[in-house]
Amino acid sequence: MSATPEQNGAYGPVPRKEDARFVRGRGTFVDDIQLPGMLHGAILRSPLAHARIVAVDTTAAEAHPRVEAVITGQALAELGLAWMPTLSQDTQAVLATDKVRFQGQEVAFVVAQDRYSARDALELIHVEYEPLPVVADAQRALEPGAPVIRDDLPDKTSNHIFDWEAGDKAATDAVFAAADVVVSQDMLYPRSHPAPLETCGMVADSDPVSGRLTLWSTSQAPHAHRTVYALVAGLPEHKIRVVSPDIGGGFGNKAPIYPGYICAIVGSMKTGRPVKWVEDRSENLMSTAFARDYHMHGEIAATADGKVLGLRAQVLADHGAFNATAQPAKFPAGFFHIFTGSYDLRAAHCEVTAVYTNKAPGGVAYSCSFRITEAVYLVERMMDILARELGMDPAELRMRNLLRPEQFPYTCPTGWQYDSGDYPRALALAMEIAGYGELRREQAAKRERGEYMGIGISFFTEGVGAGPRAQMDILGLGMADGASLRVHPTGTAVLGVSCQTQGQGHETTFAQIVANELGISPDDVDVVHGDTDRTPFGLGTYGSRSTPVSGAAAAMAARKVRERARIVAAAMLEASPADLEWADGKWRVRGDPDKAKGIAEIAMAAHSSLELPAGVEGHLDAEVVYNPPNLTFPFGAYICVTDVDAGTGQVSVRRFIAVDDCGVQINPMIVEGQVHRGLADGVGMALMQVIAFDADGNCLCGSFMDYLLPTSVECPSWELGETVTPSPHHPIGAKGIGESATVGSPPAIVNSVMDALAPFGVRHADMPLTPANVWSAIQGRRLRTDLAVT
Amino acid sequence: MSSPRAHCAGRCAGPGAADVQITVTVNGSAFTGDVEPRLLLIHFLRDHLGLTGSHWGCDTSNCGACVVWLDETPVKSCTVLTAMADGHRVLTVEGLERGGRLDPVQEGFARCHGLQCGFCTPGMMLTARWLLDHNPDPSPDEIREALSGQVCRCTGYENIVRAVRWAAQPQGGDGHGDHRLAPGGSQ
């Protein structure tokens, strides 16, 4: 394996293959699919956050002239399908049988002849509820006498889910005991929601004759979903085909399996007709995978002159009513324990306690790289708070403590082995683009005039591309990905991959990877994805794993093709394979480079009547499974400039400088777009987005009227920079980029606002920094942003 | 494309209200049929006419995935009743391409990577076309203002602004389409 690939000109900012259909409105999203005889499903949801179900009366709904079926929890229980396993070894109700445990929980499913009739019939179902006391505040979930949410679980007498820890507690305590300076801070990374513009949905088509079940689904992981359906429903896996067509954004929201999918499948099996179920926006926000909800206490220890020594964190994790977080099974808190971030420190220890609450399940979603968002937020806030305590510039404190290039590969105190990096170079570049010194002078001058400008820095280390299969699996499925590459006689190729684009441009990037390896044009490579009948098995796209895992698989498949081609080329050139070398996109005779054969000629020969040498059966096709030896560790340095109106609390992001390093870039245009997206996420999470609840467990953010997303006017014109530090273990030296900016940007914005508010003595306020929240902070009052303001 | 009347015959047994007869001209073609009074324009376009380029995203006219033109004005078709379009013209993304030639806005979005998942794109392009018709040389701030009623979750807006700027430039109309954007040029 070479870390830096030979470049045959296929890499670069080429326009995307996908766009020809999208700009014409000719994409095919799940809700665009119309099948003959198709019916429409709709879900009745609980209006209460915690209540016992006394009775469900579906008589009137069933009598509706256009209703074909009404399915209740009781009906599913008779099929053994009322509960399903989650991705965290818990169970989740498909349709409630005993109790409802969060507002918006699925209670019944109606199948009707059209969309509107299905909705009408929901109004005809009468459910009698007996309300129960509600746990809406994670901080009260473990209080004695708190209502037990999961009384369905044997012997469950509290809302405790798990305790988990990482790092060396004794060593960390010793470092803290000897430190000159220790500062601590409580902070909340509030519940957020990925809110892809396309909601979740499925068209389930059960063919009672063939036994085939075809599922058009908004799935980021079609193969894994197929296996889970087989396991859950006892269906033969070879009869199940999952098709993820065009996906209108995912961001982790479309990784889990939702009750609506199971209902659509049961609805189709019951009626013998295709059933479409597409949730509405409120259903998406109120019931599907949320993100974060980490209540964190951080402590940082340092010497008086600013050498960071240790880090501690205690976390209370709100997992909602069912433990349905989606991460590798051995990591119940995801990768949170990468929380020492980008710094050279001696010891670290973190403890995570997870609890049930009467809120929707989820927690690991929204471009979080399995909770590295929370980890980076904690350490980057702590670094700023320490800087203020020490009276040091936050850039200087970071420069002093960043890992140095010669320390790589670096094993951090909690055991992660960072593959490569040059951190000081990235921070220096960001400061140069920002004009850091000038910004500080401007800030000082403005403070003299009573204007509040903030400069915030964050430096992050990501860990993406899960993952080594011995350590990382989901429901027992190792996190590997396959690639199959067919090369046609005329030298064009079709690549099948198991990952699933949701807008990342895989059809272009993966074509470029193959083209680069084979010396052909990306135009001559078609990428097939999102169809379990046409692609090899693999775990899908989330956690920025497409390029680190499937990208590697694609390159390895192409190299396998190339090696087969070498044997054929040797026969064509009447040379020994050992005497050939791959150069400028062709196999060439060493010492006589004009004697050469390209892939198209070789492919035709491999399909021809040519007498083939041993080792080649007759074509060039190859299939591989890629088992990543480690994660890849992208990193970046971000600087955010904000202006805060102290009279109203309004924050505006004036500038945002982002320097990212994701190793070798295949399509820099797409990389840039991925970074832009994550930076907008940061603006949303830091300033606007939160899924809050009142004391009765009512979701206060169940529509885009209340759950505010950043638009073009809240986002600045992003200023990007880059460094390239190839991953030494990845076949093409690439790292993931899909989530870097979502991970790295929120702390830069919060640090910037806290910097602006320093003259008021404000050290910390929780996200989102809405005008009301900022204004309250200036008044010396800290808000609980996750609860209704009372 | 079949008449919406055929689709509607039987499926409009909504609660109570009698169907209303409408005539709507969509992308230059007139459709006459009976629809439920409550039928949203976005569902009429998508489910009845099969014009699935316009998307439904939020129900509350916040996201703009459903933006189409009603006569000369971009509207959020998730909050317009089909009956309100009676006697009016509707332009959807399917009507942007003229004579096999992409609108410069369409080409700009592709050239400038102004889209990723493609879900918001039709609505964004229709608003952008309206903007350019009224302000042929908008500043980045004017573009951001014009698009501020719509949400994109993928691009962080920067490349959408670049795309609209590209479409506003003289070369935006030169017809030299990128070959990758030709019909059949991709999956």
What do you see in this structure?
The complex is a heterodimer of chains A (790) and B (187). Chain A has 790 residues and is α+β, with helices and mostly antiparallel strands. Among the domains of chain A are: 19-26 and 471-626, Aldehyde oxidase/xanthine dehydrogenase, molybdopterin binding domain (Aldehyde Oxidoreductase, domain 4, 2-Layer Sandwich); 33-132 and 194-287, Aldehyde Oxidoreductase, domain 3 (Alpha-Beta Complex), CATH 3.90.1170.50. In chain A, strands 3-7-1-14-11-12-13 form a 7-stranded mixed beta sheet, with helices on both faces. A 5-stranded mixed beta sheet of chain A has the order 9-18-17-16-10, sandwiched between helices. The radius of gyration of chain A is 27 Å and the shape is globular. The N and C termini of chain A lie far apart (60 Å). By secondary structure, chain B is α+β, with helices and mostly antiparallel strands. Chain B folds into 2 domains: 4-95, Beta-grasp domain (Ubiquitin-like (UB roll), Roll), CATH 3.10.20; 104-173, DNA polymerase, domain 1 (Orthogonal Bundle), CATH 1.10.150. Chain B is 28% helix and 13% strand. Chain B has helices spanning 4-8, 41-48, 104-111, 121-134, 140-146, 158-168, and strands at 20-26, 29-35, 67-70, 73-76, 89-91. Chain B is globular. Chain B starts with a helix and ends in a 19-residue tail after the last helix. Classes of the chains: A alpha+beta (790), B alpha+beta (187). Chains A and B meet through α1, α4, β27 and α16 of A and α2, α3, α4, α5 and α6 of B.
List keywords for this structure.
heterodimer; A: 790 residues; alpha+beta; Aldehyde Oxidoreductase, domain 4; Aldehyde Oxidoreductase, domain 3; 7-stranded mixed β-sheet; 5-stranded mixed β-sheet; 18 helices; 34 strands; 27% helix; B: 187 residues; Ubiquitin-like (UB roll); DNA polymerase, domain 1; 2 domains; 6 helices; 28% helix
